[in-house]
Amino acid sequence: MEGLKTVNGTGTTNVVSKHKFRKRRSELFNDILLFQSIDDHAIQVAISDHKSFRDLIEHLVIDQDFKTELEKTRAIFRWVTARDLYCLKYEKEEPGSPEDIFAKFRGHKTTYAKIFETMCRYVGLKCAVVTGFAKGRTYRPGDPCGTRDCRHSWNAVSIDGAWYLVDTKWAARRSSNGGGVTNGLVMDCDDFYFLTDPEKFIYSHWSNSADWQLLENPVTFTEFEKMPHLKPNFFKCGLHTLTDKRCVLETTTGSVNLRIGCSNPTKFCYRFLRLGKYNVDDERKLGKYVFQVSEQKHTSFNIRIPRAGLFFFKVYAKQVNKTSNYKNHLTEVASYKIVADGSTQEVDAFPPCASSSWGASPLLSLFGLEASKQSAKIETQNGKIHIEFQKTRPVEILCKLRYHPPVEDDKINVSEIFYIDKVKVSANLPAPGEYGMDIYCRDPDVNEKCFTHICQYLLIYTKNALPSVDEESQEEAEADSDRTTPTPDYPDEEEREQTEKATISDKDLNIGITQTPFQFKDFNIEERTRGQVVDTAPDDFRLTPTEKEVGENGPLTKLDSSEKPALRLIYGDAFEKVDDHALEVAKCRHASLRDLLWDLVYSKDITDELLKIRALFRWLVSKKVHEMTFDSGEEGGPEEVMNLLQRGKSSYADVFDVLCRYAGLQSRVIPGVTKGLDYRPGQKSDVGLAPHSWNAVFLRNAWCLFDPCLASHPIVSTFTASGEFHFVLDEHYFLTEPNQLVYTHFPDDPKWELLDELVSRDEFLNFPQMTPHFFAFGLDLLTHKHGTVVSTGDVDILLKYSVDLVGLRFSFTIHADTGHEDYQGTKLNKYGMMESKDGVASFRFRLPEPGTYIVYIYAKDESQNNNKENVFAQVCEYIIHQDGVVQKEPVPFPPCPYLSWGPRASFFTMGLATAQNAGTVHTKDGKIEFRIEMQTLTQFRTRLAHHSMSETDLEGYVIYKILGKTAIFNFTSPGRGEYGLEIYAKGTQTDDKKLYHVAQYLIVCDEDIESFTLPKLPPGFLGPQPQFVELGLSTLSHHDPIIHSDQNRIEIILRTSQDMRFTGNMIETETRHEYPEHIFIQTQGTVVTFVINIPTVGFYMLRLHGIPAKDPSHQVPAVYNYLINCKTVIKPAFPFPKQFGHWKEGGYMWKPMELHKEIGTPVVPFRVYIPKAKEVAVVVDQDWTLLKSTDPGVWEGTVELERYYGRGCRLTMVANYGGDVTRYATLLEYTL
Asked: What is the pTM of this model?
């Protein structure tokens, strides 16, 4: 290119210099933020389109006058990772030009690495493409790394004379198949893959060339496969392995130990899973088989294996320091496969304590405590345990002893003795065994009644013959031996508050762990009847409303967003109990508010503030308005407010405020507006906005939001003949997050938004219409924060969801604002599609004509199998103003049965897995191949769809085959366009004859190709059939059921595990002509050979049938089917002799396999193997020639045939097996 010069990628650099003078990445730069200005520039360039590659390079690098090679490299790296390269086009893309490389990339003919290398060379940087194997997203520990799916390429770039490693594809991983792309930009960039240190890179990338590993001591491929599977976050957290430098851990003892070192305070968690179909209950149980202990410099995991089998163990982590964000989730850092062989004995789980981590924790120092027992494990020989905590301020400690199975309370003796400067905890264990001790703490100076879990210990009580030791000296010895480096200290108050919140909000990944206890006395629930009058409150019971004691000047405090899910987890069982009680109380009639609050709250001694709120809220939501009447209703009194509700002169918020204030709680009524059912996103008027009020209640030193009116949903009962209705609770409006409520509620006083950045009225009106289900599913907006979208082309709306919600499914509907739901006979829904992958749901709409459209998006969680009425619920709404269309003739998406593309829930419930989780797939050279892994043999069927082609027109463009437990689907495109591939499946072991829709893919071909049609095959034709495995058969040759051959003679070999009889048939696919005589079956012991003579060029279906020799049935089932593509006929193909039953029981022919007049051999030698035969003869036109036995079972001889050729004579080979010497069985029959 004129004006731009390239630099040789590797030059003459010798091997030593590639790593000898290289600095570590931290020596090149210590903070990625140093590149902020370069990154901002690169992203701005990525937004722009350029006419030529030269324009791009000048805009990105040359015009910026970057001073260093590092700056140039960063600019290119950030541009490549930011730009969606699949939609990048230049005006001219001449062959051999840099622009041509981008064109090839769009056609999947080159890679990210090649683009990065090209750009580097044109700005004067030395760069090389490195090829090899990588452990990608679908890799699991123990998987082979030498497969096609693991092939990968990356770059080495020279900076200041030293080589560094870069992987732009993995740095922008969401760009695969268009996922995670908005307005041509890739949303995420992982900087770990920028100039990665080779010592870290080698855990995931292995180069074919040892030189390009850039290591002093290169790693062999076998060593690479065995290395532990460490993720980028492992190194970002500053972790290092201390034990088990392997990814597969084998055990015969029933336990495995892992130790991970850390250079900074780090919080760890884990998941322990059984290999196979995922089960939540199974994971809950397995989590109790892990003993995790975190110390200052390392964390150890002692994993007990409950039984023989295969397991996965995943480690999660995040750094904990003064600048860390406690709202961040723990991320996966390492995973291992555990193999427990059959000798593994069953073991018990660890005691069921509250946390996943054992021993002392940093929370001790936050409460001013220091434990005498630093070790997580305490052993005793007499059942007595003593733990002492030094304290620097007053605290309250609560201890709970855990045992599995639970121990009766009267057998447990645990005591806490409080002194001025210490607390002593003692326990007498009732019997030998393992116990867990949970220790909770509360600061009495803080206005909270909850205890926080601060540590837990494993107590081991063993009896043996060791001499007794003085208890006090033993305690001192244990304290000395167990004491380690103190845990990290967080002295300041702000840090303490953050860490407390983190401890109760980190549900993390250990399912079923309880967290913090609270003051709650269990009580009995009395079953009530509708309209029942209850007893009045005791005479000495008095109600006094709270005054407005909490100041509202200045910013209002609000509950941290991380606490709400934690509180729901902590209070779950108590909520259920209080709810049941409130529902019974709601049936009753109370004479006064005093009687109601006594019955609802005080008679049950409910003192916890949140439980009080729950009881009041649940009662109000469940109470029928016309039944809310009180005898006393003095003017201005609380009962009057409640009585006025049924007349519409007070509100639910007013009633809830009264209930809260008279129950001793601080409460406010928040007036404002809310979006009604007729509201439409983006409207400027007040149409659709309704005056409304809700509540703020002061809880845990913060204001929390509640809306009892919208939380109450009337439902018609199906259990009463009268159709009586009852109320159900919408949990969204209980403890609602302020940043969620603001989408639907706008207060008159903005401070009650409770947001750090207040939302204006215009912003409120422009929000998308959100429903409570949006937040119940944990969704978030990645694009289109406004509810109105103006477009002249396609519209892509992206929603984020948790990847843990594997059963979450989406749908949508499209309506024109005129009310029409179709366009020229095609439903508008067909002009939209959606796919979900890696926590992002992508909705694409290509609306057919200018106008205004309403889009509703729905979701449901299909993992909730117990919900028989699990239907899609609306989550959000958009208005799209389509000002124009790009295509002259709008084309709908292919007419497949579902709007959602990719694997469906049934795909995973059938135990299937695939790397192709994205719903959209682009062809390469007009072809696509993807694989589905099966746990058991599965039958598949496919259907291809196109908006203008019939199903008949599309026959023969999809074919699938089965290799082992992998189904391989091959698609050949009929031409440019979009195609829908539907996949149906069912297990072969089930009696169900129905095949279920498990996946559908949108296949996009934007290439000019030569169409190539494969023959139409019956569903499930190719590969092994169900009887293949059952009969113990295996392939010794031709493991792939599709054979492309350059010759017309093929030998297919199978191995048997028993004596078998085989037959076969070959059918030409176009004419359907059958050629069974062109198959010859040979048997030698357990090896069976099928010799195939193919008469002409073309496609042939080969069916192989087999049955045990001892089975007398005449029905021989199919065992394996092939598709043969014969490209060339090397020599004429003559028929083989007809084979009879006795031949198929072990006969083998060395010669002659064919006899024909065109061969014309006058004297033909015969050599065959016929087991158990007494005599073997060749008979032609009544002339007999006896063969001689030269070895056991081997028969040989010559036969003169010259005079028989051309006469239509038949030659038969016969054998006598003893007994009647005159009886011969026919083995073979030739036609001369």
From this structure: 0.52
Nearest to 74 by CA among 121, 42, 50: 42
pLDDT tens-place string over residues 861-897? 876 644 445 688 899 999 999 988 867 777 899 999 9
Question: What backbone phi and psi angles, to 5 degrees, belong to 1046?
Answer: -95, 10
Task: List, in order, residues 6 or more apart from 537 with CB less than 8 Å away.
Answer: 594, 595, 597, 598, 599, 602
Q: Which distant-in-sequence residues (6+ apart) come within 8 Å of 1221 by Cβ?
A: none
Residue 291 pLDDT greater than 90, yes or no: yes
* 338 DSSP β-pair partners: 249, 311
- Strands 1138-1139, 1118-1126: pairing kind: unpaired
**What is the rounded CA–CA span in Å between residue 463 and residue 403?**
18
Q: What is the DSSP string of 787-814?
A: SEEEESS-EEEEEE--TT-TTEEEEEEE
Confidence band for 955, pLDDT divided at 50, 70 and 90: confident
The strand pairing partners of 1101, in sequence order, are 1067, 1123
Provide the phi-psi class of 249: left if phi over 0, else alpha when psi is between -120 and 50, else beta.
beta
CA separation, residue 128 to residues 109, 135, 937 (Å): 18, 21, 44
Give the other-Cβ count within 10 Å of 85's Cβ.
Answer: 21
CA atoms within 13 A on the CB side of 5: 3
Q: How far apart are CA 571 and CA 517, in angstroms?
A: 8
Who's near 171: CB < 8 A, 6+ residues apart? 77, 81, 189, 190, 191, 192, 193, 194
- At 1151-1177, the pLDDT tens digits run 888 887 776 678 899 999 998 899 999
DSSP class per residue in 731-798: GGGEEE-HHHHTTTEEESSGGGG--SSPPPHHHHHHS-EE-HHHHHTT-EESS--SSEEEESS-EEEE
pLDDT at 766 over 50: yes
What the block records as the tokens of 612 is: 């009080």
Lowest mean pLDDT among 76-90, 493-507, 951-965: 493-507
CB-based burial label for 1086 (10 Å; 0-12, 13-18, 19+): middle
Whole-angstrom distance, CA of residue 667 vs CA of residue 647:
23
Strand residue runs (E) in 355-451: 357-358, 369-371, 377-380, 384-391, 396-402, 413-418, 422-428, 433-442
d(CA 466, CA 472): 17
Please give the mean pLDDT across all residues of the chain.
83
Q: By C-alpha distance, which of 1020, 1117, 1024, 1138 is closest to 1075?
A: 1138
Amino acid found at 765: L
- CB count in 10 Å sphere of residue 1115: 7
The per-residue pLDDT for 516 is 39
Closest CA to 685 of 803, 765, 797, 591: 765
Judge whether residue 193 has pLDDT over 90: yes
Instruction: Let me know: does 1110 contact 1202? Beta carbons within 8 Å.
Output: no
Are the C-beta atoms of 1213 and 1176 separated by less than 8 Å?
yes
Confidence of residue 8 (pLDDT cuts 50, 70, 90): low
CB atoms within 10 A of CB 481: 10
Strand ranges in 631-763 using DSSP code E only, listed in sequence order: 667-675, 689-699, 702-706, 712-716, 725-729, 734-736, 745-747
What one-letter code names the amino acid at 918? A
Residue type at 587?
K
Q: How does DSSP assign 849-863, residue by residue?
A: SSEEEEEEEEEEETT
Cα separation, 1224 vs 70, in Å, equals: 88
Query: What are the Cα distances from residue 1028, in Å, to 133, 799, 940, 1024?
Result: 34, 46, 17, 6
Residues 6+ apart with CB under 8 A from 439: 387, 397, 398, 399, 425, 453, 454, 455, 456, 457
Matching residue, tokens 């020639």? 1185
Query: Could you report how far apart the first and last alpha carbons of the chain are, in Å?
Result: 72
